[in-house]
Structure formats: C-alpha cells, structure tokens
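Long-time lurker. I teach an intro course on protein structure, and each term I like to show students one example going from raw sequence to a predicted 3D structure in token notation. This year I'd like something fresh instead of my usual example. Would anyone be willing to generate the tokens for the chain below so I can use it in lecture? Attribution to the forum is fine with me.
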Amino acid sequence: MTAKVRIIIGFCLMAMLLFTWTGAAAALPSDIQGHWAQQEISTCVSQGLSSGYPDGTFKPDNPITRAEFFTLINRAFGLTDMASPTFGDISTTDWFYNEIAKAIAAGYISGYEDNTIRPDNAIVRQEVAAILAKLQGLGNADETALQSYKDNDAIGAWAKTSVAAVVGSGLMKGYPDQTFSPLNPLTRAEALASLQRARDRLEDSRGEDRRGRKDKTPPRIKSAVIYISNKPYTVNISHKGLQGNINLSKIKDSANINRGLINVSEDAILHLQTTIPILNLPVEVDQELKAGSNKLKLFDVLSMVGPDGVYMSTLRKYLGNLATYTGTLTDAAGNVSTVSITIKM
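-- Reply from a regular --
Happy to contribute to a lecture. Here you go:
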C-alpha cells in the first residue's frame, strides 16, 4: 500500500523545518514586502515559525532543488513510509536519501531514464506539475486549455496532462505574460504557494476548517466508471448502502477494459476482494484513495490475466456472468463503511 497521506502539523512548520530560517519570530523578512507571495510567507512568520535568513532576508525568488522540494512535500503531507532507492547518483550517506526513499514509496517520483534522480538540480515547473497531479490524484484534464499559453509547445508531451490538471485545479498558475514557463526552475516562494494551495485543497476535501474542526461525515463513493474501448459506462452508487451495479452484458467479447475509476469525497482507504471461480484464485486489493477521481488498482490486478489488458471475454471466462467486489471504505477518522460493486457480464 502506498504511504498514507496525513496532515500532521501545520504547513508553515513544514516549510520552517526544510528551509533553515532563523531569527526573531516577530521580524518579517526585509525582501518580501510587495512580493506576490508575501501573504504565504508572512503567515509563517506571524505564527512565529520563521523570520528568514540571518541577514533578515527570505530570498523568495531563489530556486529550490529537487531534493529540497521532495523534503518539503514529505513533511507537509506527513509521508513517512520508505522504499529502497536504486538511483545511481545518490548514496545512503546523503542527507536527502531517506527523503527520496519516502518520495518513491509515495509514488510521486520515478527518476530519469538514465537511472538518476539528480537531487541537486533545480526542479522545474513541469516536473512540479507532474508531482502535484500525482499527489492530489488529479485525473485526466483537457489539454486544450493550455493553448492560452504562448509557450504551450514548450511543455513536454509527458507533462501536458499534469500541467493542465494543476492549472485547472488552481494549484499552479501561469505568468502575466501568458506563459507557463515549464522549464523554469521553481522558486522558494512558488514552492510555498503551490504546496499551500495543495494543502488547502486537501483540507477542503476532508471537510476540515481553518481551526482544525473536522466534518465527521463518512466518505462517500459517488460513482464508479468502467471504460470499455474508451467509452465510459457509469453507475451511481447509493450513499446509504454503498452498493451499485454495472451492466456490461451487451458489450462485445473483444471489447477492451482500459481502466476503472472510483470517485470519493475525501481521502480514504479502499479494500476490495473477490475470487476468480475457475482458478479459485482470491483477488484482494488495498488502495489509498485521494479526494476526487482515482484509478482502481483492482483493474491493474485483473490486467495480469491477459497480456494485452482485460477483455470482456477474459472476464466472462474467469469471473462468470456476475462478478461482485465487496470490501470496506475507511476514512481518516477510522469510520468504516461496507462497499459492494456488482458487474453483470
């Protein structure tokens, strides 16, 4: 299971721990007056968490390295689980080794094709967009919205969906000259602002207000979507019983199931299980869900049955005419709801 996403202490404290700020809590950094991120920086300082560097500055427009940004993310979102890094350009003695291990476990980094992670390089804006999109579980976004940027063509093909998603959700913004500047290094101020927005978005989805009061309403499955040959088939699931039915009986055997999506109102943990009758093979999947749309790992498991994906003929053969997935949905407060999704073949 991927690392649980938790807000364990205030965002500004996270930033303070990453950036080596010192000085009296009451003194505002001398170089933030009139800066577009003045409010975000001032909030941290006013809470007595930071006052900038010893020379009285904050240096908001200085770039932030990849390792520093990973560290800020891990602390801001309470990521603690670790995986074993295999990148060729880091060592267990590096100060950021454990931070990269956490980032790998959380699934928001994968490194470069040459098996490097380049921790000391400045992280660029399109890389940040890809990370934030993964962290927030943002689904597919309309890339045509990026055409409003003069430098749309400069955005890497691999990053376009992510950039469109984070811009559409307000996590990142373009510049006044109508550019996104995908290859520009992220600044310290931009790092604080983007993660503050991400944290705010998470708080809103969890129903938590600024005073830390939390809406105890259990998480809700809003809908399940099965994509058959890129055509969506949607079922609304009852909030009371958390049950739903999807009728695929008229779909051709040759139709390919590309993916499944599930939509929840807040962060939760989904546990689904079933048994493949002919093989008598139990299928059990635990998955952490983020508020919004999530790709169901269940379909990744089923994809292993066929070399080219899941076809209706495969599902009918191994699951029969009726497949029911049962399990539980657990929210951050520990409230548990039962889940049942039935697919008619």
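Some talking points for your students: The mean pLDDT is 75. The first helix runs from residue 11 to 18.
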